[in-house]
Amino acid sequence: MKHLLEEFNITKQRLKQLLLRNKLVASTITLLTLLLVALYWSGVFDAPDPQGQVGAGWIKPVGSEVAYVGNATCQPCHPHEFQLYNASPHSRTVQMIPVGQERPEFVAAQTVRDDRNGILYSVRKGAGQNQIVATTGATSETDTARWIFGSGNHAWTYLSQHGPQFRQLKITYYPPSRTWNFTPGSGPGEGTAEALGDAYTPVQAAACFGCHSTVLTGTRKSLDLEHSRLNVGCESCHGPGRSHVESVQGGATANGTTANGSQAAEAALVTPPLHNGPQIMQLCGLCHRMPVASGHENALGETLLARFPGVALVRSRCFTASAGKLSCITCHNPHESTKEQQLSSFEAKCLSCHTAPHGKPCARGETTNCITCHMPEEAIARKIPLRFHNHWIRKNPFGMSQNPADIPHNS
Ligand code: HEC
Ligand code: HEC
Ligand code: HEC
Ligand code: HEC
Ligand code: HEC
Ligand code: HEC
Ligand code: HEC
Question: Over the range 96-131, which residues count as b (16 or more CB within 10 Å of their CB) and which as e?
Answer without folding.
Answer: ebeeeeebebbeeebebebeeeebebbbebeeebbb
